[in-house]
Write a structure and sequence with these properties.
8% helix, four-stranded antiparallel sheet
């Protein structure tokens, strides 16, 4: 299963020169090392070895944060059988400072997030785990036609996520102490938010083929899982979907952050609207999001205002994990096109973008410092690429957005 899932991407200004650099993970050791691309005004140079980031693994995700409070952005990599924490030395290099607590041997870690859950000024860390999979216990699964196919996560035991407390630069595993071990799920996506407006960060986790989790911060170092109570465990129809990517954004401009979760083909993405009182409601059908995303498997997702109208729009990176019937006979029958969804009067409409591929992660930022939000997307068994935003700068020109496609080979030296 590991070969169909990866892998991630992060934007990180590792050298503090004002340009967003790109860190790409490899999803398989045979692909070679992860890659760091230094951004020099929109032109990229490979600096992986010089930066001390050469590493090969079944890479999954990346999280950035200043865990030691030295003013420099550090980097965490999640992977199958081994996570890695790199400290930014401030001179263009990183040092592997992975403590034993973060290694999580024999686990398949997926996403992660730095956040300060106890408001002590030090960034703590949550790391998601997927399923209890090892090559030795690999199961043979089949499509409805009887052909060999990738298993669903239901074929394996799910795992709890891990929570780590930052004690002035040292991470201590507080999973059991905090209560995070009381619920498990095949976790893929994570965001932190103050769901109940009490001044403390909570944790939302999208689970693949089981109920989502919303861990409410009890403000005493412990958390309670309340996704069902607060309306984000299941879709409006009461189904547990195959949650993958997740993103926060105030789509209806009411001052409260809403949640979008992207799911498996024939499930549709889910938009949970936040009423500001700690409760959420599924508005996917009424906004048109469900129908527009129904035929796709979403992985990367993010909010951005593509037409400068003051309303948030959506980008979703899509790629299947099980064979698409219309691509039967092709070498890689998992290709899907991405979705760029513009919001008009509270509903979404689709704008064509890109070509079909096995898209996975998406990162959002102003790559070329022109005041527009660009998107970097990874492809399973293919080249990563950059969607450069060539539309209007918000509040300066009439609303118009167009994205041009730049492959890695076109912009990389």
């Amino acid at each position: 299963m590991t070969e169909i899932m990866g892998s991630g991407v992060a934007l990180i200004d590792y050298d503090n020169d004002g340009d967003q650099d790109i860190f790409l993970l490899q999803g398989h050791p045979s692909a070679g090392s992860n890659v760091l691309l230094r951004n020099d005004k929109g032109t990229f140079t490979g600096v992986t070895k010089a930066a001390g980031l050469e590493h090969s693994n079944y890479g999954m995700g990346a999280a950035t944060g200043d865990f030691d409070n030295d003013g420099r952005t550090d980097l965490l990599i999640t992977a199958f059988n081994g996570n890695t924490l790199y400290r930014n030395n401030g001179n263009g290099t990183f040092t592997n400072v992975t403590p034993a607590a973060l290694v999580l041997p024999n686990l398949w870690s997926t996403s992660a997030a730095f956040f300060d859950y106890d408001n002590d000024g030090w960034q703590d860390l949550v790391i998601l785990n997927y399923i209890d999979f090892q090559f030795a216990n690999n199961k043979r699964c089949q499509a409805p036609t009887g052909e060999p196919d990738y298993c669903t996560p239901r074929a394996y035991r799910s795992l709890p996520s891990h929570l780590f407390h930052n004690e002035k630069g040292k991470f201590v595993d507080v999973t059991a102490k905090s209560g995070f071990d009381k619920a498990s799920g095949p976790a893929l996506g994570v965001v932190t938010l103050d769901a109940n407006n009490d001044g403390f960060q909570d944790v939302f986790i999208a689970n693949d083929s089981s109920a989502n989790h919303l861990w409410i911060n009890n403000r005493n170092g412990t958390f309670t899982e309340k996704a069902l109570e607060l309306g984000v465990a299941y879709s409006e129809s009461g189904l547990a979907k195959a949650g993958m990517g997740v993103a926060l954004g105030d789509y209806n401009n009411d001052g409260h952050e809403d949640l979008i979760v992207v799911n498996l083909m024939r499930e549709g993405a889910t938009l949970f609207a936040n009423n500001g009182k700690g409760d959420f409601a599924d508005v996917s059908a009424r906004t048109g999001l469900h129908n527009l995303s129904f035929l796709f498997t979403g992985f990367g997702v993010g909010w951005l205002d593509i037409d400068c109208d003051g309303r948030l729009d959506i980008f979703i990176a899509n790629g299947a994990v099980t064979r698409r019937e219309e691509q039967r006979g092709q070498k890689e029958p998992f290709k899907e096109r991405n979705l760029l969804l513009r919001q008009v009067n509270g509903r979404f409409e689709s704008i064509p973008i890109g070509v079909p591929a096995i898209h996975r992660a998406a990162a959002f930022g102003d790559i070329d410092n022109d005041g527009r939000v660009d998107i970097v997307v990874t492809v399973n068994n293919g080249q990563a690429f950059w969607y450069r935003n060539e539309g209007a700068k918000c509040n300066t020109l009439p609303a118009r957005t167009a994205y041009s496609y730049l492959s890695a080979s076109e912009k990389r030296r």
